[in-house]
Structure formats: structure tokens, C-alpha cells
From TrEMBL:
<keyword id="KW-0813">Transport</keyword>
<dbReference type="InterPro" id="IPR003593">
    <property type="entry name" value="AAA+_ATPase"/>
</dbReference>
<keyword id="KW-0067">ATP-binding</keyword>
<dbReference type="GO" id="GO:0016887">
    <property type="term" value="F:ATP hydrolysis activity"/>
</dbReference>
<dbReference type="Pfam" id="PF00005">
    <property type="entry name" value="ABC_tran"/>
</dbReference>
<dbReference type="InterPro" id="IPR017871">
    <property type="entry name" value="ABC_transporter-like_CS"/>
</dbReference>
<dbReference type="InterPro" id="IPR003439">
    <property type="entry name" value="ABC_transporter-like_ATP-bd"/>
</dbReference>
<keyword id="KW-0547">Nucleotide-binding</keyword>
<feature type="domain" description="ABC transporter">
    <location>
        <begin position="6"/>
        <end position="241"/>
    </location>
</feature>
<protein>
    <submittedName>
        <fullName>ABC-2 type transport system ATP-binding protein</fullName>
    </submittedName>
</protein>
<dbReference type="GO" id="GO:0005524">
    <property type="term" value="F:ATP binding"/>
</dbReference>
<dbReference type="InterPro" id="IPR027417">
    <property type="entry name" value="P-loop_NTPase"/>
</dbReference>
<dbReference type="InterPro" id="IPR050763">
    <property type="entry name" value="ABC_transporter_ATP-binding"/>
</dbReference>
């Protein structure tokens, strides 16, 4: 194994036309390398192509063209080894209601050809907190328990790479934290590479070392989380005036607004306007400043800037 858990080159996927639907170019030539041992976030709006990409990695969707290497194994040359290297927790709760968690894990292990002697069913049940429910019918499990069972199923063959497609969408906070704790532990203790898609930008910001942003089937940004945020040029200065006053005149290029508590907020490009010039304009208007602070961009800003239609590729 080299440095990368996943290497993707020129990956395309076109879903065939059906009925009145024209063909859909879901992936348009994606190049992506995902470092081994990282927690990697795949972000993008609905329909961007995230699930298509993940399902190709998982071997659930057949790519149209391009190369995919998983843990060094080319998907086309070594399909068995590449499949054995990856586990996927899908978005949908597709669990057989008549299996108990223990049976579901055993069946999954069988599907992956894990011999009985090498199965770690009890360890997985413990890790996902379903020891007590090992013999319960899945139809009697709560939504949260089912989701944990899906995570367990993705782990039966002890994959090097664990892929989670929107694992916490529509999940309550308690379960979300439990899932994240599980995932962090896998990453830290076993070195499992984690790839996840999420709509929760805060979560990606907190969890992921590196992030790729995908839109309309193309990767438009890919960097460390901190570098992505650092790349944002927009800056917001929040100034509380001593007394309630109207917004002062600002130099061109500064967007002004006034918040409900009377604070001014000025947003401008760091590369174009000096913070001093903004403060100076406030003082010149005869306004006494009680408090002043800056608001740094977060991933939400990066995401909006990169995926908004008027902006081109990063
Ligand atoms: P995401 O997971 O980012 O929301 P998807 O990969 O699910 O995006 O979908 C990407 C695009 O491909 C969307 O326009 C979607 O409608 C289309 N698509 C996904 N699956 C199929 C399919 N089986 N047949 C036709 N079009 C599909
Ligand atoms: Mg999806």
C-alpha cells in the first residue's frame, strides 16, 4: 500500500436514458486521491454525484470510464481484492426485518467470504452497542439501532476503507455522537481510512482532515479542511456602536448591514480592502465604537461560494 487508500482517475458515469429522461452525466471526469488513514469528506449539494461516486467505489454501480484503485488494487484488474478492501454503510435502511442483528452480521460475513473462525461478530455487536439486542428481530429495532447495525455490517470483513453515505442525515444528536465516536475510534485505533458524505458542514469541518467539494459531477475543490477555509477571501467585521445610529457611508466594495441588536456588519474582500479603511470610515462618521470583532469564514461560506452558479471552478 502506498500513501493513498483510494486513487480515482478520469472517472465518468453516464446513466442511460430511460423513457422521456435523457442520459444523465452524473460524473464528468473525476480525479481524486484519498490519503490512507485520513477522515475524508465528500461534500456537495443534492444530485452532485456523491452517491454515484461512492457506489462505484463499493462496486454497486458500474462506471462508464476511468480508473479506480482501492488500497492499491485496480477495480478492473483485481475486483475481489479491491472489494474486500472497502466496506460501505449505505444511506437507506435496507435491513431484512426477519434477521436478528447477530444473523445479519453472520450473513454479511458469509457474503464476504469471511471464514467462521475469523468472524468477529461479538466484537462488532459490542462496538455498535447492540449486544443486548443481538437476538432481537430487526423489525423490533429502533431507527437508530438499525443504523448502527448497518455500520456493523460494513465492518464484518474488517475493511481498510470505510465509506459512509450521509450517515447522520435525519439522525438524532445522541445517535450522531455515538456514530462519530465509533468512527473516530476506528480511525484512530485501527487506522481505518474513513470517507463520508454529509450535508452537515459543521460536522465535516469538525471531523474531516481533508475535503473534496463536488458539484454537477465535477470536483471543484479539494484541500485540507483548514486550507479550504483559509482560501476564503471574504471577511466580516462586526462593530457595535456606543449609541444607536444609522449605518455610515462605506467605501465601494464593502457590503453593509445592521443587525437586530444595532451592530453593523461589514463584509469585504481581504485582498481588496484593508480592515483599517473600514474602521476609519466608521470613525469619520463620528461614531464611537464600543466593541469590534471579526467573523472568520467557515466551511459554509466556502461551500456557498464554490457551489453558487455564478462562480466558476475553483
Ligand atoms: P448525490 O448523492 O450527490 O445527491 P447522486 O449520485 O445520487 O447525487 O446523483 C447524481 C445525478 O445522477 C443526479 O442527477 C441523479 O438524479 C442521477 N442519478 C442517480 N442515480 C441514477 C440512476 N440510477 N439512473 C438515472 N439517473 C441517476
Ligand atoms: Mg446521495
Amino acid at each position: 500500500m502506498g500513501e493513498n487508500a483510494i486513487e480515482i482517475e478520469g472517472l465518468t458515469k453516464t446513466y442511460a436514458a430511460s423513457g422521456s429522461q435523457p442520459p444523465k452525466h452524473a460524473l464528468k471526469g473525476v480525479d481524486l486521491e484519498i490519503p490512507a488513514g485520513s477522515i475524508f469528506g465528500l461534500l456537495g449539494p443534492n444530485g452532485a454525484g456523491k452517491s454515484t461516486l461512492i457506489n462505484i467505489l463499493a462496486g454497486l454501480v458500474v462506471k462508464t470510464s476511468g480508473k479506480v484503485r482501492i488500497w492499491g488494487f485496480d477495480q478492473d484488474v483485481n475486483p475481489r481484492q479491491s472489494r474486500a478492501s472497502i466496506g460501505v454503510m449505505p444511506q437507506e435502511l435496507n435491513i431484512d426485518p426477519f434477521f436478528t442483528p447477530r444473523a445479519a452480521l453472520e450473513v454479511q460475513a458469509g457474503l464476504y467470504g469471511v471464514p467462521k473462525s475469523r468472524r468477529v461478530t461479538d466484537r462488532i455487536l459490542k462496538a455498535i452497542g447492540l449486544e443486548d439486542k443481538a437476538e432481537a428481530y430487526a423489525r423490533n429495532l429502533s431507527g437508530g439501532m438499525r443504523r448502527r447495525l448497518l455500520l456493523g455490517k460494513a465492518l464484518v470483513h474488517r475493511p481498510h476503507v470505510l465509506v459512509l453515505d450521509e450517515p447522520t442525515a435525519g439522525v438524532d444528536i445522541e445517535l450522531r455522537q455515538m456514530l462519530w465516536a465509533n468512527i473516530r475510534r476506528l480511525n484512530q485505533e485501527q487506522g481505518t481510512t474513513i470517507i463520508l458524505t454529509t450535508h452537515y458542514l459543521e460536522e465535516a469541518e469538525e471531523m474531516c482532515d481533508e475535503i473534496a467539494i463536488i458539484n454537477h459531477g465535477e470536483v471543484i475543490a479539494r484541500d485540507s479542511t483548514s486550507a479550504l477555509i483559509g482560501r476564503m477571501d471574504a471577511k466580516t467585521l462586526v462593530i457595535h456602536p456606543e449609541e444607536e445610529v444609522a449605518l455610515p457611508q462605506m467605501p465601494a466594495g464593502v457590503e453593509s448591514c445592521q443587525r437586530a441588536d444595532g451592530a453593523f456588519c461589514f463584509t469585504y474582500r481581504r485582498s481588496e480592502i484593508a480592515t483599517g479603511a473600514v474602521v476609519e470610515a466608521v470613525r469619520k462618521a463620528g461614531i464611537v465604537i464600543r466593541d469590534i470583532r471579526t467573523e472568520e469564514p467557515d466551511l459554509q461560506d466556502v461551500f456557498v461560494e464554490l457551489t453558487s452558479e455564478k462562480k466558476g471552478a475553483a
